[in-house]
Prior knowledge:
CATH class of the domain at 31-125: Alpha Beta
Order of helices and strands: HEEEHHHHH
Amino acid sequence: MENSTKITLGAIGLGLLTFHLYCKKQRKNDTPKVFYRKKLVNNYNGYVVPPFGVYIKESERDNLPLLEHELVHWKQFQREGLLPFLINYSKEAINKGYDANPYEIEARTVESDYCKENYTECIRTGQAVTAFNPNFRR
């Protein structure tokens, strides 16, 4: 094996180890970094990117119910770990859809029973406590 290949593989291994240790540290972090952005992908008002933190739309800066919703997702990441959380969340989203995803329902702590099950409609129509966004999930 050439020296440059060995160096590249070593750097990749070091990077993966560093990322693993960072994930492990963040699983114990109960106060993740919150990033405020003018726009988020897919017209979302907020989302979690474990292990890096919570992203909230700038216009929702003072929306504590939305932040609480996203912090539940952070706790799910802490409870399960990065890969299990991402795999399980994705599997539920594929099999049950966004509104019926148990991870999302768990995060809808302040919503009415109706909005816990029909979250997309509630956000679009203004019935949701966490956010109003007529373009949500379009």
